[in-house]
Automatic annotation (TrEMBL):
The keyword Signal applies. The keyword rRNA-binding does not apply. The chain crosses the membrane at residues 41-60, 81-101, 276-295, 307-332, 344-366. Keywords: Membrane, Signal, Transmembrane, Transmembrane helix. This is Uncharacterized protein. Residues 1-17 form the signal peptide.
């Protein structure tokens, strides 16, 4: 957290125009007449695009898909989750946090490993009738059978590639290093790079457990009765993504769990687990917005765009913190059975949602519109030689 605050402070100073030069700063007359001393617009966009893709690709761990899906369908399924990660990364963080909390809960209650718990949350264990085993009552029946499956066998099904995760980590760290170097040398950091920095920091900060990458199933030779098999409806998937406890998902009427399914939010027995993931997601969302504040003094094509960026960054930072406050206030009001006050706070917070969506749109669009009039110094490359010890 201290590192992130220092990074924001450094960048907000570095992207400002007129400041005293420090060690490693470039001369004021540096230009991009020499190809070896500059970067192109394509280099800026390509570096940001590859970093965002790497960060979102390794941070997305889909639930187990329906059986017999083609590789194209599986790819499209993952790309859709990546799109959600780009638009609302805090949703992905909340999803991962809910699965982590429930995996630990299953592990403690039924004396199974956390890896087994993750596999349960993902819909990896199914009955002979191909219904996901995700309900508490189901686990009471199948817990002993689940224990017989070795952790190594589950991890062997994982498609998580350690090499791809390492490459993504290195790409993110290299991008962060470049931004810091540009800030220390008083070179402009474009709005697109600041926005990319937010995506690069979150996966490195949170990590990515391999247990969540399982894409195949383990079947149990037990018969189960239930409704005819049907895929979960879109409304159920959408409400599950937002962690809505009113989403009526029934494992015996489906052959897979929704993409953002989380047991803790549809089973009232686990309502107490809802707060922790929500708080984690809110704090990550606030950090994501705070990093955008690093471009507070950056160059913008117009004053309107500058204030759109500033207001968007402030809202994206503030609204998640307001959500954290609401979570604790509602927990107190619900314990004291203050029904009217509880409804009032829920309605009051809903009023912030449209503003938050507009702010996120600002921060998604402005980094690209600002590319049309970048300052000349934005194309000057970092002078790495000043950091190499020499006599």
């Amino acid at each position: 957290m201290i590192f992130i605050l220092f990074l924001i402070h450094l960048l907000s100073r570095g992207v400002g125009a007129e400041q005293d030069y420090i060690l490693g700063s470039r001369a004021p007359n540096d230009s991009c007449d020499d190809i070896n001393n500059c970067r192109r617009l394509f280099d800026i966009v390509w570096g940001c695009a590859t970093t965002i893709f790497a960060a979102t690709w390794v941070s997305v761990h889909p639930n187990v898909p329906p059986p017999n899906q083609s590789w194209l369908a599986l790819l499209w399924r993952r790309l859709k989750m990546m799109l959600v990660a780009v638009i609302a990364p805090e949703v992905m963080v909340g999803f991962a946090a809910r699965q982590f909390v429930m995996a630990r809960s299953w592990s403690n209650e039924f004396e199974i490993s956390k890896t087994h718990g993750f596999f349960v949350c993902m819909g990896g264990f199914v009955t002979h009738g191909k219904h996901p085993i995700v309900d508490r009552n189901q686990l009471r029946i199948y817990a002993s059978a689940i224990k017989e499956i070795q952790v190594v066998a589950i991890k062997d099904k994982s498609k998580g590639d350690a090499l791809s995760k390492a490459v993504a980590l290195l790409q993110g760290m290299w991008f962060i290093t470049q931004c810091i170097a540009r800030a220390t040398q008083r070179l402009p950091v474009t709005e697109l790079e600041v926005a990319t920095l937010a995506f690069a920091v979150d996966p490195i900060m949170l990590g990515t457990p391999d247990e969540e990458s399982v894409v195949r199933r383990s079947y149990f030779p037990h018969n189960a009765s239930g409704d005819p098999i049907a895929l979960a409806k879109f409304s159920v998937r959408f409400r599950s993504m937002l962690g809505d406890p009113s989403s009526k998902y029934h494992p015996f009427s489906s052959n897979s769990v929704p993409s953002f399914f989380s047991v803790s939010y549809w089973n009232n027995s686990y309502k107490e687990h809802a707060r922790i993931p929500s708080v984690v997601a809110s704090f990550v969302g606030a950090i994501f917005g705070a990093i955008h504040c690093a471009a507070w003094n950056s160059h913008f094509p117009s004053a309107d765009e500058k204030w759109m960026w500033r207001s968007g960054a402030l809202l994206v930072t503030a609204v998640p913190l307001i959500a954290v406050l609401e979570i604790f206030v509602l927990s107190i009001l619900e314990e004291r059975n203050y029904i009217f006050e509880t409804k009032f706070f829920k309605v009051a917070f809903v009023a912030f949602i449209p503003l938050y969506i507009i702010a996120r749109l600002f921060l998604l669009i402005l980094p690209f519109t600002s590319l049309r009039t970048l300052p000349q110094d934005a194309f000057v490359d970092v002078n790495w030689s000043v950091y190499i010890p020499h006599l």
